[in-house]
Amino acid sequence: MASEKQELGALSPAWKRTVALFLVGQAVTLFGTMITGYAISWYVTLQTQSGIVLMLFTIALMVPMAVASPLGGVWADRYNRKYLINFVDAVIALVTLVMALLFSAGIQWLGLLFVCMLVRGFGQGIQLPAVSAILPDIVPADQLVRVNGFSSAIQSLSTFASPMAAAGLLSFFPVQALMYVDVATAVIGISIVFFCVRTHRGWRRSAALSATDSNADVELAASTPKPGFFSEFTAGLRYMRHRKFILAFLVIGIVFNVFAVPAAFLPPLQVVREFGADAWRLGAVEVVFSVGMMLGGVIVGVWGGFKNRTFTMASASLAFGLGAVGLGILNSFWIYLACMGVIGIIMPFFNSPMSAILQEKTDPDFMGRVLSVFMMIGSLTMPLGMAFFGPLADLVPIDWLLIVGGIGMSCASVCLVAVRVTREAGVAAASQTDALR
């Protein structure tokens, strides 16, 4: 206990600065990555004008990300998370640099871009669990919701600004120039995280873990052979199996993701069919949603949500469901656009508390593996849901699908409050902020 207090004291002067620098470093890297992602996607579209080729490039990004997430979770628990994040950023930047040099030399084969997307998808699958798992190492437990909210706002800002930047640059420069931009932003982001961010992995165990759970975790970790991916990942699954609240959040999250598919993927098709096939309408929907998410992230960062974070998630799920129903019944495009903005604002109120609960309540030794499973399931359920709702959109009105999805998300909100383990998991640990100031 004494050593833990000393470690807390050692952290006290700088945690806010550390978090700010980490978020800035990640934001710089993300901005360059998204610029290059849009540039490659648009380049492929312009060169081939083929939906099949574009689909293959999308699969090349998403499937490796889902496949690599479990490995990323194991590595996030095995290795230094800061170094892992920087290493993956460096590998992606190196591959992008090679692609840029080849394109500059006149070797502009689309297969090279396909390989680049595979590497980027695999790298993101490795990196994302470490990025989420590192936050509890540098953020007090009672500040995780706020920090996750600000992180969501920064990501939304990149989502909003990067396509505009990519479009502007691609109008005057070849695609390889944008790859060089990605390399430059990666160098800046890596330097900020490597030289300016100090992590204290293991500086605290979650105050929400009981002594019995802690002992069980120590025995489980000790009995698990360290070498070997499958043994470590299986240990993570056993850990999740013995934590009812994790399983409950996983199941409810799957339900939420599946029913969120119509509202997440079908509005562009709905807008074209019901309001007109105008590019500015589709752009307006994307911009309003991104600005809404950015605003919602800031609100979460400043307010932090209800004292019981599960209630914040349940309220967001209910509001999202009602918003989806609204998209299904509104006849005015401008009111439809306002509804889409509200949905964007609501999103961080579901995602940020969920991340904070998992980051606080999960033992640090299993953090990466638990988060990787959630990321893997999340990246798979949405496409699977689209495989169901997508064909239905050609058979029944999209309005009906949005209404059904909204009702399903509303039911998920009821489950969040009604299930005892999820309700109790939402109670934050005793405040540690004062001790860290």
Structural summary, described in words:
The N terminus and C terminus are likely disordered. The protein is mainly α and 437 residues long. Helices cover 83% and strands 0% of the residues. It has 18 helices and no strands.
User: How would a textbook summarize the main sheet?
Assistant: none
End-to-end Cα distance, whole Å, is: 19 Å
Poorly predicted runs are: 1-12, 202-225, 431-437
Question: Helix proportion of residues, in percent?
Answer: over 70%
> What is the chain-wise order of helices and strands?
HHHHHHHHHHHHHHHHHH
**Tally of DSSP β-strands:** 0
Strand-residue fraction?
A: under 5%
Q: Which value, in Å, is the CA radius of gyration?
A: 22 Å
Derived structural class: mainly alpha
Output mean pLDDT: 81
Number of helices, counting only DSSP H or I runs of 4 residues or more = 18
C-alpha geometry: globular
